[in-house]
Design a protein that fits this description.
Length: 1236
């Protein structure tokens, strides 16, 4: 009988756990310690004044806040340990015969082993010595690099929008990001990128429950900062018990109740008018913005020393408006009438927790949280708006207990993410320009002006997770053995009906789309002297393009969440075992191994596609009915194993080892660690790659598009192309059917009239698509993806992982003042990279017959009998490309010639290695990146550190780093679909990614002045991010014609078939590093003098075949193109990030006479106090086709750098989506808080 891999793995895990538990239960002389995801621990060694081990010392660990107390005895190695413990303050009391009693005050933090090393002094037992370890201590027990954000820092430091992730930036190497940059479903969210990587894969846990979004990344709900006690951020070599991640991990812990009733209520207010924050000194530029936040929390005992509660809620009500600027000069009247787009945001979060000190020493806890938010996002700015709504309930509970001297920690969790994306313009009504209302049909205007319904809606995304986790420890003779594991059932589903709202394109850059006469008697902007109304996008212009969606949005054939399709299921399994060996009181060795697997994250449940599933019209020699069982994917790249069923990795073993050396008085520790850590694969990656791998019927997404220069519209599901439309919107044949308009006639109508007609076809298309039908995305169907692989998974899939190394030192300069210096290296391998294994467009794949036919067809169309004659008649390389003299992606959209019913010799001139199939874009484990950093952290927390200062805490973090990758996705490398810089040699080109901030400095301090205010300051200063410098894909021919097509002849310098190659002599991200300032001008001059006007490998292939000459290619524009020289003496520099926030609070303590702890605190916080301007990154090099308007407005690196305010205002960061406002203009916040 065949056993499934899952059942086999489950049996292995269960057996391993049983053996470990059975072994520990029979031990009689051991005690346990655990670090759970919800707490920390205390461990140490008891010695005499000479450092000799003391066995049998009596240790009592107690918490005054909850009445908790636990008695222990040091073992034969003088060692003791206890955990997991809730974060907080604890007292360690140590007694031994003949020695003075020692009482140590210490602090336990989440994920941290707090040192409990005690050196007893000889003396009578009646003498007690009391010391305080301080709130900031060195860590003598752990090998990794992590930082803890304390409750005091959360409560006192300025946090804009009470965004808990914002404060994580005080740790080195951490960058706050906008969630909307990930996906529309993350509108209103933030993320944190760690160590040069995008925040998609930063793992975030709350009370041991993973709250990470498994679909697109970051977290599932905005965590209420008032409910968080503290959190830890792991940056390198996390504990062996940690979750699956190769980047960073955040461990948050909710607050819990105590024996004293305590809580707070607060109100915060922001308004743009109160910040005196004009942009570039012009106060009128600031868009309206107002935020109201309010809430409260309370905790205390239900039964003293036994049962405690904590709970509360907060709400953010934000009214924001985004200025539209003047992105297109023709539509100024529209911008003047609707100068701003409303962007309201509402977010309500609540949290509740119970802690019970139960019988037999068992600690039980349960936590519930609920989040509801609604925000608006601009998928197509300025007026193409969607509304995002989320509802997220979550529950987690567990118990910590000891049996037979083994410590156990058990956690159960459940959460569900419910997301809806709707048409935002309908919600905003008349406050936004919406042309679909005037026409009475749903559509979105896009192109030179975006307005109307949003093509991203409607969408629904769901995620549910049921999880169980166990952590155990057993300590014996200086060995602290930890073991455990987890099992989670993760479900994802939903639909995304892209283009459900039909897109109708207006394009002002194409002069031929101007209407000679205005089609309205009362247009926006009026009618000019020529009878035109170019200020009205609906009646002054002809249509440029239509895109129609079928109204379906499933990306999977599996039903789920009440939908007929779109579901994905995965099991997450993990187990681990590790040993922390206290070799000596001053030396700790750590070793462990973690096994983990995520099932079915790359469509492993689907069998490989075979030739027997391919339509007969597409079959070819070797892949036909006689070879029905032959894997189709093998024809895209023989010898690569593409035709095998997608691999399901089961052997993801991640070992780790390290040491911590702390001699003498334990004032410093030298530590080092190394380990292998595996990454997960986002559901979104496999959902985008699934439909083409299965012929199953399901309501899958499909769309079709037609441009003004096309004669036929192909819609998935229609057997033949649509050549024209009747007045009722039915397909018809022009010249045959009486009531029939050809597409040429339709594209001669105004945008409004053409849209009304095509909308009728759009409605019929959606109605027809609602019926069950074959999957129009299947790679084997002629009316599907037709032998083109579009980012598909195949046999070689492997789980990404990182090799992490760290070495550093912690030194306690004095009590409460600690400095950390660490070197971190993180090499990430097997990153998903999209590679065209058929090498479409590569110079070596020239099909001479196809190239000759393309030339002949072009000569005929140009009315010439030779290439020289075509040049004389004004034809360019674009004309030749339109007939096939280019790569297969540009000419046939990546499909093979057979998909169009034509032989290969009439297809593309550069079709790829195998002309029987199209582009072979497969997701392969060939990506990699490397991160190297020096990280320095200085922490201080003291009472009365200086005269006149009651208390203070401060942290200074510095990060000096470099991060490189071979992925064009850069820091976003774990989001599938990105390719390499060289398709023929994916590892040959590596360079800096877009999140490579070489130097990052963060400052955070809060101090209370005697008889005065509490002052808090936070500053972030990041050096400029890099930019890539690429070759131009457009240009002007010697005869003055503009050429924008056939990029392989202009910018494919290495002949691999990809265009937009890097400038010679540069690597990715070189601008602002190896090249900056006037060096950019020299680079451009060198290109124009020595490289422009040259033949690329693709062009050389045509020359070698005798089809064309170098001189003819030059005259046609089929050579490398010129760049514009610098337009200013000093080129545009990529911007640095600079922010400085300040908060001033004045606690009013007179209320304490009514109740102890009753304090009313008014405060004023100024975000970006000095109103330092922060700009979006500039990028791109202007070529000879770039207009003057674009040069002045778009921020090209070689564009104008001396036009006051023009491009600067357009790229200035404003208030972000939701609470994200990194580097935004100055705002002032007024608040009032009551603590009791």
């Amino acid at each position: 009988m065949r056993v499934s891999p899952f059942l086999l793995a489950a049996r292995v895990v269960c057996t391993a756990f049983a053996l470990i538990l059975a072994t520990t239960f029979i031990q009689q002389s051991a005690h346990g310690q655990a670090i759970s995801m919800t707490g920390g621990s205390i461990q140490g060694t008891v010695t005499d004044p000479n450092g000799a081990i003391l066995q049998g010392a009596k240790i009592t660990i107690a918490s005054e806040e909850t009445g908790y107390s636990k008695a222990l005895t040091s073992d034969s190695a003088g060692f003791y340990s206890l955990g997991p413990l809730n974060p907080g303050r604890y007292t360690i009391t140590v007694d031994a015969p003949g020695f003075q009693q020692m009482v140590v005050k210490t602090t336990v933090s989440v994920g941290v082993v707090s040192s409990g090393n005690v050196k007893l002094q000889v003396g009578g037992s009646g003498v007690t010595i009391e010391v305080s370890a301080g709130d900031v201590q060195i860590n003598t027990e752990q090998i990794g690099v992590a930082g803890t954000v304390s409750q005091e820092q959360i409560d006192t430091l300025p946090i804009n929008g009470r965004n808990i992730l914002d404060i994580a930036q005080i740790q080195p190497g951490v960058v706050l990001q906008s969630g909307q940059s990930f996906d529309p479903t993350k509108t209103g969210y933030s993320a944190i990128g760690v160590n040069g990587q995008n925040g998609r894969t930063t793992r975030i846990l709350l009370d041991g429950q993973d709250i990470s979004d498994e679909t697109v990344g970051t977290l599932l709900f905005n965590v209420p900062s008032g409910g968080i006690g503290e959190f830890q951020l792991n940056r390198s070599t996390q504990d062996v018990s940690g979750e699956v991640t190769s980047t960073g991990q955040v461990l948050m812990v909710s607050k819990s109740g105590s024996n004293r009733f305590h809580g707070n209520a607060f109100y915060l207010f922001q308004d743009a008018r109160a910040g005196f924050a004009g942009i570039n000194g012009e106060s009128g530029d600031a868009a309206p913005f107002q935020r109201n936040q309010f809430g409260g929390y309370v905790g205390g005992p239900i039964l003293k020393d036994r049962l405690f509660f904590f709970g509360g809620a907060e709400r953010n009500k934000q009214m924001d408006q985004s200025p539209v600027g003047v992105p297109n000069e023709f539509f100024t009247d529209i911008y003047n009438r609707w100068p701003q787009v409303p962007d309201p945001f509402k977010d309500t979060t609540s949290i509740g927790r119970l802690d019970w000190a139960g019988p037999w020493g068992v600690h039980f806890f349960a936590r519930a949280a609920y989040s509801n938010n609604a925000g608006f996002g601009s998928g197509q700015p300025p007026y193409g708006v969607f509304q995002n709504q989320d509802n997220v309930p979550s529950l987690v509970g567990g118990a910590d207990f000891t049996t037979h001297n083994v410590t156990h920690s058990v956690r159960f969790g459940y959460l569900k993410f419910i997301n809806n994306i709707n048409n935002g313009t309908e919600q905003l009504g008349n406050s936004i320009y919406n042309p679909s209302t005037a026409l009475g049909v749903p559509f979105e205007l896009y192109g030179s002006l975006d307005a109307g319904g949003n093509y991203l809606s409607p969408q629904n995304t769901y995620q549910s997770s049921k999880s169980f986790r166990y952590d155990g420890t057993w300590t014996k003779g200086g060995h602290n053995i930890k073991f455990g594991g987890e099992i989670s059932r993760i479900l994802e589903g939903g639909f995304a009906a892209f283009f459900d709202t039909m897109l109708s394109r207006v394009e002002t850059s194409v002069s031929s789309t101007e209407l000679a006469q205005c089609a309205s008697s009362n247009p926006i902007g009026g009618i000019d002297g020529n009878g035109q109304c170019l200020g009205d996008p609906m009646y002054g212009w002809k249509n440029y393009e239509f895109i129609l969606g079928n109204g379906n949005g499933s990306f999977s054939e599996k039903p789920g969440f009440g939908l007929p399709g779109g579901a994905f299921q995965s099991w997450r399994l993990a187990s681990y075992v590790g040993d922390t060996w206290k070799v000596r009181p001053y030396l700790t060795l750590v070793a462990g191994v973690r096994w983990s697997v995520d099932t079915d994250r790359a469509n492993q449940d689907l069998p490989t596609v075979t030739c027997g599933q391919v339509d007969a019209d597409l079959q070819f020699d070797g892949c036909d009915s006689a070879h029905a069982s032959t894997p189709l994917f093998d024809f895209f790249g023989p010898g690569l194993g593409l035709g095998k069923r997608t691999n399901q990795p089961w052997a993801n073993l991640g070992p780790q080892a390290g040491f911590a050396f702390s001699p003498g008085a334990h004032k410093y520790v030298i530590r080092g660690g190394a380990g292998i850590f595996y990454e997960s694969n986002l559901f979104n990656n496999q959902s985008n790659a699934r439909a083409q791998n299965t012929p199953a019927e399901f309501p899958g997404f499909a769309d079709g598009a037609i441009h003004y220069y096309n004669q036929t519209l192909s819609l998935p599901g229609y057997a033949i192309g649509i050549q024209g439309l009747s007045s009722g919107g039915d397909p018809c044949t022009p010249g045959t059917d009486a009531d029939c308009k050809s597409w040429a006639n339709i594209f001669n109508m105004s945008v409004a009239d053409a849209t009304l007609l095509v909308s009728k076809l759009d409605a019929k298309y959606k109605t027809a698509s609602a019926k069950p039908q074959p999957n129009t995305s299947f790679i084997g169907f002629a009316n599907g993806d037709a032998l083109q692989a579009m980012s598909a998974y195949a046999g070689p899939y492997k789980t990404p992982y990182s090799i992490q190394l760290n070495a550093g030192v912690q030194y306690e300069l004095r009590q409460g003042l600690v400095v950390n210096v660490d070197y971190i290296h993180n090499a990430t391998l097997r990153v998903p990279l999209t590679v065209d294994t058929n090498h479409t467009g590569a110079a070596r794949t020239l099909n001479k017959a196809a190239a000759a036919n393309a030339i002949a067809a072009t000569l005929d169309a140009c009315g010439a009998d030779s290439i020289d004659g075509a040049i004389a008649n004004g034809c360019t390389i674009d004309d030749f490309a339109a007939n096939g003299l280019t790569d297969g992606n540009e000419y046939l959209g990546g499909y093979p010639a057979s998909a169009y019913g034509i032989p290969a010799e009439f297809g593309s001139a550069f079709p790829g290695t195998n002309t029987n199939v199209g582009a072979g874009n497969f997701i392969l484990p060939e990506g990699k990146s490397a991160y190297d950093a020096l990280q320095v952290v200085l922490q201080q927390q003291n009472q009365h550190p200086l005269p006149g200062i009651v208390s203070s805490n401060a942290q200074i973090s510095y990060n000096f780093s470099k991060v490189t990758t071979n992925s064009k996705g850069g820091s976003n490398q774990f989001f599938g679909g990105y390719g390499a810089w060289n398709n023929d040699c994916t590892s040959c080109i590596m360079g800096r990614n877009g999140q490579d901030y070489t130097q990052m400095l963060s400052l955070a301090t809060s101090f209370t002045v005697k008889y005065g205010p509490q002052i808090s300051l936070v500053g972030h200063f990041f050096s400029a991010a890099p930019s890539d410098l690429t070759t131009p894909t457009s240009g002007i021919t010697p005869t003055g014609g503009e050429t924008t097509a056939a990029g392989i002849f202009k910018s494919d310098l290495n002949g691999d078939g990809t265009t937009g190659d890097l400038m010679p002599g540069t690597d990715p991200g070189d601008y602002m590093h190896r090249i900056k300032g006037k060096g950019l001008g020299r680079l451009i001059d060198n290109w124009n003098s020595h490289y422009a006007g040259k033949v690329t490998p693709a062009g050389q292939a045509l020359i070698d075949a005798g089809l064309i000459t170098a001189d003819q290619l030059y005259k046609l524009g089929g050579v490398t193109q010129q760049l514009l020289p610098l337009q200013s003496k000093t080129p545009i520099q990529n911007p640095a990030t600079r922010t400085f926030d300040a908060a001033f609070r004045y606690p009013i303590g007179y209320l304490k006479r009514f109740r102890e702890g009753l304090v009313l605190t008014p405060s004023v916080t100024v975000y970006n106090a000095f109103n330092m301007a922060n700009y979006g990154a500039f990028s791109g090099l202007a070529d000879t086709t770039t207009s003057q308007d674009s040069l002045q407005a778009s921020g090209y690196l070689n564009g104008y750098n001396d036009i006051p305010h023009l491009y600067q205002n357009r790229t200035l960061r404003g208030t972000g989506n939701g609470t994200y406002d990194q580097g935004g203009p100055r705002t002032m916040e007024f608040s009032l808080r009551l603590d009791f």
